[in-house]
Each structure stands twice: as C-alpha cells, then as structure tokens.
Design brief:
Shape: elongated
Radius of gyration: 18 Å
CATH topology: Arp2/3 complex 21 kDa subunit ARPC3
CATH class: Mainly Alpha
Number of strands: 2
Strand order of the largest sheet: 1-2
Distance between the termini: 42 Å
Strand content: under 5%
CATH architecture: Orthogonal Bundle
Order of helices and strands: HEEHHHHHHHH
Number of helices: 9
C-alpha cells in the first residue's frame, strides 16, 4: 500500500511541479519515510523499490535517463527506506518523542541516497547519455531540489511522530504484539 501511495504522491507532485526539463518535484519518498521510520527497514526497502517504479519510468525511459533510471531510482529510494528503517529502530519512534526529532532524522535518512544520486549522475549516467545533458549545475540543482523536498517531508514526519492517532494506528496494524514465553507466564 505504501509503495502505491508513493507512486500516487509522485504523480501528483510530478505533474503539479515541473521545474525544468527532466527535473520535477517528487514526494514519493514520503511513503518510504513512513514505512521505514514507523515499521522497519524491510518494509522501507520494499516501499522504496515500489515507490521508485513510476519515478524511474518518468525520469528514465520517458525522460532523459534511459533504462538506467528505471533501475537507479527504485534503488536509491530503497536505500532511503533501509536507512529510515534502521534509524527508526535505533531511535524507537514507537516511544513518545519530541516531534521536532523527525526533521533531522528525515534529513539524515536521505544522506545515503543523496550520495548515491550524486554518484549516479556524475559517474554512471554519463556512460549512457550525452555528457552535455549532465553537468555539475544539473546535479547540484537536482540535489538542492531533493533536499528541499526532504525538508518538507521532515516536517510531515515530525507531525506524524507527535500524532497519537497515527501512532496508535501504526501500533495496531504494523507492530507485532509482545508475547510472553511459557517460562514467564508460569511465574
């Protein structure tokens, strides 16, 4: 479900916010952050792969990235899902926390994908598309746009961390109940 939500969020933001040819808004990571932070790394990875399909198509074969975009974008989003899941487990967002913690955690969860994105555009993509389409200005524009999007999503994650209804929903439907062993039950 979260992967589908990521694709819907991408479609809305992509068609509502074109910035330049081949550069548009992409809020598909919101679903990846929710799955990773609140459920776990495995779910974050799966959501990232699924949420990266439509962006991979639009920025890949339909855009300027070719078929490599269809591989690179889901991989990058899966990396963010993994990182968000690992951070979420280590910080234990199920416990009451300050909502503002969501902003730096969201930015931190994006760092590996930002590094991957830079490497993808600077070192891998030039083998497949003409070098004049890429340059440091394009890469910097994409990364600045992405950090801006992630910052906005950080505020949303912060609101979700502090929302008791959302946290109750997550606990009820996605967290495994604690079971007691027979040894502790008999004492």
């Amino acid at each position: 479900m979260m992967g589908a939500l990521g694709n819907v969020l991408f479609a809305i933001s992509y068609f509502a916010g074109p910035i330049a040819p081949g550069i548009a808004l992409d809020f598909s990571l919101m679903a990846v952050f929710i799955a990773g932070f609140f459920v776990g790394p495995t779910e974050g990875i799966a959501t990232g792969v699924i949420a990266g399909i439509l962006p991979g198509i639009m920025f890949g074969p339909v855009g300027t990235g070719g078929w490599l975009g269809l591989i690179g974008l889901p991989l990058g989003k899966a990396l963010t899902g993994l990182t968000a899941g690992l951070i979420g487990k280590s910080v234990n967002l199920q416990k009451p926390r300050s909502s503002l913690l969501g902003i730096p955690l969201t930015l931190l969860a994006y760092v590996p994908e930002a590094i991957f994105t830079y490497a993808y555009f600077a070192f891998l993509l030039p083998f497949f598309i003409p070098a004049q389409l890429l340059g440091n200005a394009v890469i910097i524009t994409i990364l600045i746009k992405a950090v801006g999007e992630v910052l906005i999503m950080g505020f949303i994650v912060a609101a979700l961390i502090g929302n008791k209804g959302f946290n109750s929903f997550i606990k009820a439907f996605f967290c495994k109940p604690q079971t007691t062993s027979k040894a502790t039950a008999n004492t």
